[in-house]
């Protein structure tokens, strides 16, 4: 799904300094020429990145990684919403959408016949854009709709997705942010030339076809954002913080007014201005030879011509001398955001921002972590750096507990800043931060996808890779005095923006209304000559590599405990998990107990001291309880393996009751549960559980508030001690061989007493779906969300290949039948999908699931559209072969390694399998036909009863329309949540 990147909080690991010093001596820029191509590189770069600049100005960044025969590829343009024209905000984003529509060579059945109609549509949109008369605009749009319908007869929707699917690509996507628009693919390494041929063509001459239906998808995306309180709060803080910069003056999605008045002429002008090679970069990380790849890229993109790119100019922001406050209302729970302005990424001070944020929040031992979260003074709190080119921000977030006002939260957050300015933290904290950042870098550079993402971000933010690599070296030189001086320079009690997110109804929302759109033609069974040409290009086969559990996983015994291990030969990171075959269904207290552990210490060490000790070791631990399984895990650096294990075992065995923490914890649980009732996603999850299991289900299997009040702290601690003394298996991924591991590892249970045993508790079973029914939950929102559920048969391993093929074809991606029909053809949704979900355990039932989120005024059409597809499966020979090829190539190039082998083994065990199920798919897929999919559809999906889970606003929905679907049961929040 094409998406906008607008993360609520975006932590950045690496920052740049203009200060070249001895700290960076290990990382120096060098230059080399090989086979006629000159590149720059940095000495001691762990990912061996090469930086090329081609003759036309195109930047190429290549980082080889041989661990998987795949490549993460980004094509990035250094332009985003910040460079949108003032009178056409949102333009960069919907241009991103249009870059998936093809060119004059692909995406078209007959370009000579399509072009005149598209030219006519161009002119109509210009008239529409300049008209202010309502009747005239309606008439123009009706004509746009008519001509677009004619033009669609010559279009091939989603041919780009079919091209990439046929290569075995995963994660086809794109995103737009403030100063970047990025196009994303993860491809097998044997299709580089195919990929480059398609991308070069894609950016050569993009055609803005199928515009009005795609624009309707952008409208849907905008309406979704109007229901998102987090997004509205973030936009509010940016608007107040940056009144002179487009960071604050306009949003990524654009204004409703501008979305209603698009101009294809303006879109082309933007493309011609910013989509030029000297403003673009191709970034790849994966299994390839850079010397060969740079030649291929140069050949493919040599036709692009450089041209000057206008610089973005803005008026300098004035200093904030008194607090600026804004209020955002919405149905979600309350919180406060506080923002402090900092210089942009290239400023020397930027390197200190991340370190200072870590002093406040690092998830374990920061000032806010210990003083506000660990002590339970707030329900939640944190500090997060948000770094951009022109300016940066430090954002503080605080969630109130029971009885707290947002003013109370603000005072507590400001109090932590006061401690920071006074230097009320230890020097050890800075050392611990450096150790944890080093561990983070090891993890970052071990994975080809995260490496590519980091390099891409550095390119669009214009950061210096040598300085980024030297980040931890620089951190080690920074002193407590540096942090205190920095904090006093930028943080005061008055120079901030505060956004109060309050609960209530937003009366100022102006949604994008539904235009009259006639469904366009979907040419499913045709393909362009270009697609055939690309598919005919030669490629070397990649031999699949399946997991052999006997070969790839070592086994041993630690006393009478099973140990399953995979050796990490890449770096010094380890992870160890104690895995238990019981969960919260067996003991309802278990889920509460593992949450309570976060606030407990022992007789010798406080909870805060445990947090500091784990963080100092650069280790993390976690205890989790699922429905039927539980785990205790720890991960970190192998050099600290023994100390980390001992620390975890000490806490598990020796934790003691803390009555004050227990009282605060129970209030915290109550507040969190109350907040969940205000979250539409949680409400939908509750409806889905109700649909699958009935009125009593895993989602509402919990305590009432009155029952919580009757619990005792000692009971929870007993549960934790029992967990530590229960039988389990040990899962290990790390540098040690299994024989050394079992010699040095102490069992979790230290005593000679029998293992604690737990009787199996309640078991929830899926109920047969026997009639059409509607489960409705009221929620004030502009959209309506519908999820179809049907419980199906027991697990059958022979269906694994058919299910994989069916899901890809029917509803699993942008090239699927569901997506093409409901979004591309009918413009009824931004997000829609459908699938058959096989159970995770052999004794459980499968499920048919389908989803659509749509405007309330499209509800009837959207639901009817999905029902048509659930009842009748359209045939697309082109789509079928595209999905088949994608699955075969994806499976052949996929490598499950490391801890993934252990989790795959457990998953196979749950299903009663002894081999890698991917091999079953790969072997059978070539023989499967459309008849097999149609038979599966008929047996499991078509003309069957469904339960419709609907979250929406009653006043905007027609009850008669809903009742046509089945008998309506309006559920209260108490019924859904169980409290």
Can you offer a commentary on this structure?
With 979 residues, this protein is α+β, with helices and mostly antiparallel strands. Among the domains are: 324-447 and 461-503, 2-Layer Sandwich (Cytochrome Bc1 Complex, Chain A, domain 1); 549-744, Metalloenzyme, LuxS/M16 peptidase-like (Cytochrome Bc1 Complex, Chain A, domain 1, 2-Layer Sandwich), CATH 3.30.830; 773-977, Metalloenzyme, LuxS/M16 peptidase-like (Cytochrome Bc1 Complex, Chain A, domain 1, 2-Layer Sandwich), CATH 3.30.830.10. The protein is 42% helix and 18% strand. It has 38 helices and 25 strands. The strands form four sheets. Strands 1-2-3-4-8-5-7-6 form an eight-stranded mixed sheet, sandwiched between helices. A hairpin with a 7-residue loop joins β2 (37-42) and β3. The radius of gyration is 29 Å and the shape is globular.
Please render the helix and strand layout as text.
Layout lengths: L28 E6 L2 E6 L7 E4 L5 E6 L5 E8 L13 H8 L12 H20 L3 H19 L6 H7 L4 E7 L4 E8 L3 H13 L6 H16 L2 H13 L4 H4 L6 H4 L4 H11 L5 E7 L3 H12 L22 E7 L4 E9 L6 H11 L6 H8 L5 E8 L3 E9 L6 H17 L4 H20 L1 H13 L4 H5 L1 H7 L2 H11 L6 E7 L25 H8 L12 H4 L1 E5 L2 E7 L5 E8 L8 H8 L10 H10 L3 E6 L4 E8 L3 H14 L4 H18 L3 H14 L11 H5 L3 H12 L4 E6 L3 H7 L28 E6 L4 E12 L5 H11 L6 H9 L6 E6 L7 E11 L3 H13 L5 H17 L5 H12 L6 H8 L5 H11 L6 E6 L6 H5 L3 E4 L2 H5 L2
Parallel strand pairs: 4-8, 9-13, 15-19, 20-24, 20-25
Antiparallel strand pairs: 1-2, 2-3, 3-4, 5-7, 5-8, 6-7, 10-12, 10-13, 11-12, 14-15, 16-18, 16-19, 17-18, 21-23, 21-24, 22-23
Helix pairs in contact: 1-10, 2-3, 4-33, 5-11, 13-14, 14-19, 22-28, 24-28, 30-33, 30-35, 30-36, 31-32, 33-35
């Amino acid at each position: 799904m094409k998406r906008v990147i607008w993360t609520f909080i975006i932590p950045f690991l690496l920052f740049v300094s203009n200060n070249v010093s001895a700290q960076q001596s290990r990382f120096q820029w060098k230059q080399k020429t090989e086979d006629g191509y000159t590149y720059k590189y940095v000495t001691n770069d762990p990912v061996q990145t090469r930086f090329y600049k081609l003759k036309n100005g195109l930047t190429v960044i290549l980082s080889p990684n041989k661990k998987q025969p795949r490549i993460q590829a980004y094509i990035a343009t250094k332009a985003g919403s910040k460079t949108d024209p003032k009178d056409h905000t949102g333009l960069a984003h919907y241009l991103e959408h249009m870059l998936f529509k093809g060119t004059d060579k692909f995406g078209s059945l007959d370009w000579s016949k399509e072009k005149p109609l598209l030219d006519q549509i161009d002119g109509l949109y210009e008239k529409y854009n300049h008209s202010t008369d309502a009747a005239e605009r309606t008439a123009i749009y009706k004509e746009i709709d008519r001509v677009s319908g004619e033009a669609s007869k010559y279009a091939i929707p989603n041919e780009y997705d079919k091209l990439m699917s046929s290569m075995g690509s995963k994660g086809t996507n794109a995103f737009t942010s403030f100063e970047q628009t990025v196009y994303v693919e993860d491809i097998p390494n044997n299709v580089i030339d195919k990929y480059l041929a398609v991308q070069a063509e894609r950016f050569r001459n993009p055609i803005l076809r199928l515009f009005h239906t795609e624009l309707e998808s952008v409208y849907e995306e905008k309406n979704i954002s109007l229901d998102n309180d987090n997004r509205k709060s973030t936009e509010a803080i940016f608007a107040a913080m940056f009144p002179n910069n487009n960071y604050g003056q306009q949003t990524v999605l654009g204004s409703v007014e501008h979305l209603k008045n698009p101009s294809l002429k303006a879109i082309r002008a933007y493309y011609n201005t910013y989509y030029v090679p000297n403003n673009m970069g191709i970034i790849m990380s994966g299994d390839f030879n850079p010397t060969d790849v740079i030649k291929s890229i140069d050949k493919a993109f040599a036709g692009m011509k450089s041209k000057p790119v206008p610089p973005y100019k803005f008026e300098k922001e004035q200093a904030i001398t008194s607090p600026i406050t804004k209020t955002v209302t919405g149905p979600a729970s309350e919180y406060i955001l506080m923002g402090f302005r900092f210089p942009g990424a290239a400023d020397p001070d930027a390197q200190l921002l991340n370190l200072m944020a870590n002093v406040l929040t690092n998830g374990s031992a920061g000032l806010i972590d210990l003083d506000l979260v660990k002590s339970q003074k707030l329900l939640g709190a944190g500090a997060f750096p948000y770094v951009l080119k022109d300016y940066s921000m430090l954002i503080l977030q605080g969630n109130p507990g029971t009885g707290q006002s947002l003013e109370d939260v603000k005072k507590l957050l400001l109090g932590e800043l006061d401690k920071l300015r006074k230097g009320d933290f230890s020097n050890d904290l800075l050392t611990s931060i450096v150790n944890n950042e080093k561990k983070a870098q090891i993890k970052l550079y071990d994975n080809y996808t995260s490496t590519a993402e980091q390099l891409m971000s550095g390119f669009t933010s214009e950061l210096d890779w040598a300085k980024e690599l030297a980040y931890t070296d620089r951190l080690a030189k920074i002193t407590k005095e540096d942090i205190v001086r920095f904090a006093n320079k930028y943080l005061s009690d008055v120079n901030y923006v505060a956004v109060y997110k309050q609960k209530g109804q937003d009366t100022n929302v102006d949604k994008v209304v539904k235009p009259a759109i006639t469904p366009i033609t979907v040419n499913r069974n045709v393909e362009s000559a270009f697609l055939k040409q690309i598919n005919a290009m030669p490629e070397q086969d990649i031999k699949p590599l399946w997991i052999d559990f006997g070969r790839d996983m070592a086994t041993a015994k630690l006393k009478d405990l099973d140990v399953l291990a995979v050796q990490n030969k890449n770096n010094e990171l380890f992870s160890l998990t104690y895995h238990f075959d019981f969960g919260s269904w067996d003991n309802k207290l278990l889920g509460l107990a593992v949450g309570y552990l976060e606030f407990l210490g022992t007789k010798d060490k406080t909870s805060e001291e445990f947090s500091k000790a784990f963080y100092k070791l650069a280790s993390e631990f976690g205890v989790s309880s699922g429905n039927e399984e539980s785990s205790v895990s720890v991960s970190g650096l192998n050099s600290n393996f023994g100390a980390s294990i001992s620390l975890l075992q000490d806490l598990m065995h020796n934790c003691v009751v803390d009555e004050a923490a227990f009282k605060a914890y129970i209030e915290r649980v109550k507040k969190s549960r109350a907040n969940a009732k205000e979250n539409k996603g949680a409400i939908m999850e509750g409806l889905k559980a109700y649909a699958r299991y009935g009125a009593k289900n895993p989602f509402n299997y919990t305590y009432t508030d009155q029952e919580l009040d009757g619990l005792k702290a000692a009971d929870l601690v007993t549960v934790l001690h029992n967990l530590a003394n229960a039988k389990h298996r040990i899962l290990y991924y790390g540098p040690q061989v299994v024989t050394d591991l079992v010699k040095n590892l102490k069992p979790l249970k230290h005593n000679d007493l029998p293992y604690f045993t737990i009787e199996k508790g309640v078991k929830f079973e899926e109920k047969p779906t026997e009639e059409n029914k509607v489960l409705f939950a009221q929620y004030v929102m502009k959209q309506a969300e519908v999820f179809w559920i049907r419980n199906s048969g027991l697990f059958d391993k022979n269906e694994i290949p058919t299910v994989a093929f069916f899901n890809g074809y029917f509803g699993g991606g942008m090239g699927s039948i569901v997506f093409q029909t409901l979004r591309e053809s009918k413009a009824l949704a931004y997000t829609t999908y459908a699938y058959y979900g096989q159970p995770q355990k052999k004794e459980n039932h499968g499920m048919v699931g389908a989803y659509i989120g749509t405007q309330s005024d499209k509800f009837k059409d959207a639901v009817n559209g999905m029902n048509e597809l659930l009842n009748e499966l359209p045939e697309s020979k082109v789509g079928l072969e595209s999905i088949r090829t994608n699955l075969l190539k994806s499976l052949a190039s996929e490598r499950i390694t490391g801890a993934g082998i252990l989790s795959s083994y457990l998953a196979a065990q749950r299903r009663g399998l002894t081999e890698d199920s991917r091999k079953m798919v790969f072997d059978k897929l070539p023989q499967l036909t459309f008849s097999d999919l149609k038979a599966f559809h008929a047996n499991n999906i078509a003309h069957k009863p469904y339960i419709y889970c609907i979250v929406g606003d009653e006043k905007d929905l027609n009850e008669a329309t809903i009742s046509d679907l089945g008998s309506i049961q309006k559920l209260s929040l108490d019924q859904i949540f169980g409290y």
